[in-house]
Structures are given as structure tokens and as C-alpha cells.
Amino acid sequence: MMKKTLANTQEFLLKNGFYIVIALLVTYYSLAAPHFLTFRNFNGLFHAAAPLLVIAGGMALVVLTGKLDISLGSIAYLSCCMGVMMYQWYNASPIVCFFVIIATGAICGAINGFIVVVLRVNPLITTLGTLMAFRGVGLVISQSYEVGLPDQIRELGNAYFGPVFLDVVIGIVVLLALFLVQSRTVFGRHIMALGNNVENSARLGIQVNKITFFTFVSAGLIASLGGILSLVQNGRFTFFLGQGYEFTAVAAVVLGGISLFGGEGKIFPGVLVGVFTLELIRNGLNHVGANPYLYGFVNGGIIFLAMSIDALKTRSRGRIRVIEDEAELGKKIPERNKT
């Protein structure tokens, strides 16, 4: 009984620990910075986090299958590069540029999916290579030039939908749509099945290769949408667009309760909680006047902590199952002795 109670307590802390941390951080930052706990600040916080919100949603799809795609930031960059170059070279309309960006993201995702599924290369190795390759292609095409956007497009970067920024609404709508795909569609159920056990999924008739391929395609397409939000926010195309998003997205996904081992977690509100936690820490450090060079160190520490907690949660679930099995076995033995 004592072992089971301790295991359940540990499971509760691992599951809800970040909610406790968020509450403590909000309390501390509110006391240290008088302008922190305001609607204006939190509205700006989510506004800054909107591109990551979308990209992390795409990352979550891949992670739920038990795989990783660390090229999403570079996909966002290359996709936006193609759209912006279409505008600069051929004076294409914003609508045409939008579809070029989305199509490029899907093609990049298809390249990742092809290498993983057909060539059978490890997803981490694959996307590590394409992370560098996609950004390299974008740098060659753009020659690292910065390109300004038209005024009517730049204005969308700070547009409001009611009291909140428009891109925040777009980010949440994307997450809700992905959650519906995860929970209400056959495709989503197959993704969860792959994350739990690939061999069993294949035995049940699930087309493992097809689902894996289209998961990478979807993630690439969604990453390009996140790149559009980042592009419009900045008001200009720069060579650092999307840089670092891939690793921050992994941290946000894990912080949101989605296991890196796949098959567990919810895109909504999980990804929203993860992104909010990361942005809350950055925003709070800014309000208390912390050294800006500290941000990278803190983000690295958060990523390490998130990975460690995910591993602990997996081990804890295994221990709880063992304890429950032992308890069940202990009940059955006396019954057998009585007979």
C-alpha cells in the first residue's frame, strides 16, 4: 500500500508539476514586476509566442508517432524564402505567395517523409541533415538579403481580433484543428497507435509507412504557416527567421505532456501550456531586468529538464504497472490458498 501511494504521489507531481511551477513563476514575477500581471502584457506574450504555437503543433504530430522532426524551423525559413522571392522577382500577389509558401512546406515535409519511410533513415539523423540543407538552400536563393513586406501585409502583423492579436487566434485555431484531427479522425487514431506500438499497428492493418509519411508532410505544411506568422510579425524577411524554433518546439511539446516516446498526450491544451510556460519565463526574465544572455542558458536548462521529466514519467508509469500487478497477484494468492 505504501509503495502504491508513493508511486501515485510521484505520478501526480510529474503530471502536474509544471502547473505548480507556472503558478509559482506568475506569483514571483507579479511581485517583482508591477506591470507583469496585466492583460496587455499577457496579450503581448501570446502574440510573441504565436509562430511557435503553430510550429509546435506540427512538431506534436510527429512526436505522437514516436519520432522527431528537428528541421521545422528551417522548413519555415525556406518556405517563406520561396514566397518572398516570388514577390520580389515576379511581383506575385500575396495570395500566390501564400500558396507557394504552404506548398514549399509540404514538399519539404514530403522529402523528410520519403527519406524516413522509403530510404529507412533514422528520423533524427534525417531531419538533422535537412535542418542544415533546407536553410542552406534558402540562404543560397536569398543571398542572405533582407526583404521588406508591403505595408498592407505588415499591418496584419499587429492586427487585432476583438481584444486579442489576430495571430494568437490563428495559433489557437490551428491547435484546436490539430486536436480534433488527433482525437476525432481515423488518421489521428492511427498516429496514436503508431506511437504506442508500431508492430502491433502493422498487425492491425494500419498502413504504418503511409501514416508516417503524411505526418511529416503535415508537419512541414504547418511549419510553413508558423513561418508566415513570424514573417508578418517582423514585417520583413531575414536570414534568422525560424532559427531555433525546432528545439524550442520540442521543449514546448514535452512540457505540454506529450511523451517523446509517442502515443501519449493531447495537442490541446498540451502544446498551449508548453509554449505559454516557455514564453512566460522569457517574458518574466525581461520584466525583472535579467541579463539577456541568460535567456539561452535558461532555455537550454528547460529543454534538458523537460526531457528528464519525460523519461521519469515513462519509468514511473512502468513502476506503477508493476506495483499494480504485484497487488493484484497478492490478492489472488490468498484466494488460491483458501481453495
Q: Could you characterize the architecture of this molecule?
A:
This protein has 339 residues and is an all-alpha fold. It has one domain: Orthogonal Bundle (ABC transporter involved in vitamin B12 uptake, BtuC). It is built from 13 helices and four strands. The strands form two sheets. Strands 1-4 form a two-stranded antiparallel sheet. The protein has a two-stranded antiparallel ribbon with strand order 2-3. A hairpin with a 2-residue loop joins strand 2 and strand 3. About 3% of the residues have low confidence.
Annotation keywords:
about 350 residues; mainly alpha; ABC transporter involved in vitamin B12 uptake, BtuC; two-stranded antiparallel sheet; two-stranded antiparallel ribbon; 13 helices; about 80% helix; about 0% strand; globular
Structural class: mainly alpha
Helix content: over 70%
Overall strand count = 4
CATH topology: ABC transporter involved in vitamin B12 uptake, BtuC
User: Number of domains in the coordinates?
Assistant: 1
- Secondary-structure element series: HHHHHEHEEHHHHEHHH
Strand content: under 5%
Q: State Rg.
A: 22 Å
Low-confidence stretches: 320-329
Q: What is the highest CATH level, the class? A: Mainly Alpha
Side by side, the strands of the main sheet go 1-4
* Tally of individual helices: 13
Shape: globular
Give the overall pLDDT as a whole number: 87
Main β sheet profile: 2 strands, antiparallel
| Assigned CATH architecture | Orthogonal Bundle
Whole-Å distance between the termini?
A: 25 Å
